[in-house]
Specification:
The protein starts with 9 loop residues before the first strand and ends in a 5-residue tail after the last strand. The longest helix is centred in the middle third of the chain and has 14 residues, at about 235-250. β2 and β3 (about 25-30) form a beta hairpin. Among the domains are: about 10-160, Cathepsin D, subunit A, domain 1; about 170-260, Rossmann fold; about 280-345, Dna Ligase, domain 1 (2-Layer Sandwich), CATH 3.30.1490.20. By secondary structure, the chain is of the alpha+beta class. The protein contains 11 helices and 29 strands.
């Protein structure tokens, strides 16, 4: 609804109930102060973000006096920064924002300075700029306008009607590739500030009272969410950085535990086996004397021999005969490399299905076909992709696989076998280029919709420390 001007001046007492709907504050008691030019709002955790040309500020509000456990997260563009002299004569530099004031169905834009009013009886002060041409003051009375109630903060409607606010999001990535660029582009298009953080340049202050993440000599600011794009080669350190963000309380699209488990192929297959998720017969052994037995557990040739740390099809070998399988296994053991042996699903014919799961839903799927003469279907190895319609069983399998690793976003790769879908891998950092190109869907936009849903709820209630 566009701002509307009251037809007749409203009568205000020296204290009134008002609302700030654009900030998600439907009810707050404000003191009228005609001696102050600009209105003031009690705010804390005040932090700037966004581009220098169009800076924004985010802050949190305790709308109810004495209820510091109830928190409203807010953000707004900065329109000015002013030196304000308080009633006790102290000067303070404050950020100034503009937002709509709501009173008894009328609303109009006002300027508000942000400051800590924890020691004041009123959480908000209404100055002359907010009252001009709109209000007539009756200084001897209070609450001449309809009284509101703090009960509104405890209703489901409050949560559903919380306004959109700009978010500050970190992308943990060392690469300037399509996926990273799309995350920045789409996030900024939706009004957020997206910062790419090189994972290996982060370091941590680990302590019980104030754990922190530092970057290039400075403590990183508070982020609303972290999107991990951690490369396989730095999984242990990347997971440690992610755990630090989790310790601070930042919401992470995928948690450190799920990422670590999905990267360890042996552990990943054990997790899927526990969840009774279909997959190719798999065997693992450490002793050279078990070569024959490990092949026998899987079945007859052809077989797949796969390094545990393999990515994008590297370190995956097709052994077409038993003799070839034994040679590959001996070679890997000679390199002291850990590997799995799996049966080869012939009916898949060099094709697999990538199902992209976001927020517990399969949002897109594509069929990947290997390059001529290559049994691997990875797009990085010259494979091709096209959109594909999946079956209900395939959809359910993909969802169960992502859930088994507790991943909010996952690329689940499966084969179409005679006995039903078989999961090859659960990728906790799937790329977007192939699946957006083949399906024409805005996958990154869907990801941001999930992030916004998860980190924008209001109000927030902190648990009281006993």
């Amino acid at each position: 609804m566009s701002p509307s001007e009251p037809v007749e001046p409203l009568q205000f007492g020296w204290e009134e109930w008002v609302g700030l709907p654009d900030l998600g504050v439907p009810a707050i008691r404000a003191k009228v102060d005609t001696g102050a030019r600009t209105s003031a709002l009690h705010a804390f955790d005040i932090e700037t973000f966004g581009p220098v040309a169009k800076p924004k500020v985010r802050f949190t509000v305790h709308p109810i006096p004495g209820r510091d456990d109830l928190i409203i997260p807010c953000s707004a563009p900065i329109i000015d920064r002013r030196d304000v002299t308080s009633s006790n004569g102290e000067k303070e530099s404050r950020f100034v924002i503009q937002t709509n004031l709501s009173v008894n169905g009328d609303h109009w834009p006002i300027e508000i300075t942000l400051t800590n009013r924890a020691g004041m009886n009123s959480r908000m002060l209404l100055g002359r700029q907010a009252l001009k041409d709109h209000i007539s003051i009756v200084a001897t009375d209070r609450f001449l306008q309809p009284e509101l109630s703090y009960d509104v903060y405890h209703t489901a409607k409050m949560r559903q009607s919380a306004p959109d606010r700009a978010l500050r999001i970190a992308v943990l990535s060392r690469e300037d590739n399509y996926s990273t660029r799309r995350l920045v582009e789409e996030g900024e298009k939706r009004g957020h500030t997206v910062e790419v953080i090189n994972t290996t340049r982060c370091y941590m202050a680990i302590n019980a009272m104030a754990p922190e993440v530092h970057y290039d000599g400075k403590r990183l600011p508070r982020f609303d969410a972290v999107i991990p794009r951690i490369g396989a080669s730095i999984t242990p350190y990347g997971a440690a950085i992610l755990r630090q963000f989790e310790t601070i309380g930042t919401w992470c699209v995928n948690g450190s535990t799920g990422i670590v488990a999905s990267r360890d192929k042996l552990h990943a297959h054990q997790i899927m086996a526990r969840a009774k998720i279909g997959m190719p017969n798999t065997a693992f052994a450490a002793s050279p004397r078990d070569t024959g037995n490990i092949i026998g557990l899987v079945g007859t040739a052809p077989l797949i021999v796969k390094l545990l740390e393999s990515t994008q099809g590297k370190g995956v070998v097709l052994a077409e005969t038993r003799k070839a399988a034994e040679s590959v296994i001996d070679a890997f053991r000679g390199l002291k490399a850990n590997f799995l042996v799996q049966d080869f699903v012939k009916e898949a014919a060099g094709e697999d299905i990538r199902c992209l799961v976001i927020g517990g839903k399969v949002v897109a799927s594509m069929k990947r076909t290997g390059a001529e003469g290559d049994f691997r279907s990875n797009l990085h190895r010259g494979g091709s992709a096209k959109s594909v319609r999946i079956t209900k069983e395939e959809r359910d399998t993909a969802l169960r696989a992502a859930k088994a690793f507790d991943l909010n976003m996952a690329g689940v790769d499966l084969l179409r076998a005679e006995k039903g879908p078989k999961v090859l891998e659960v990728n906790s950092s799937p790329g977007f280029e192939g699946i957006e190109g083949s399906t024409g869907k805005n996958i990154v936009g869907t990801l941001y919709e999930m992030i916004e849903t998860r980190v924008r709820p209001a109000p927030i209630r902190r648990r009281k420390v006993k």
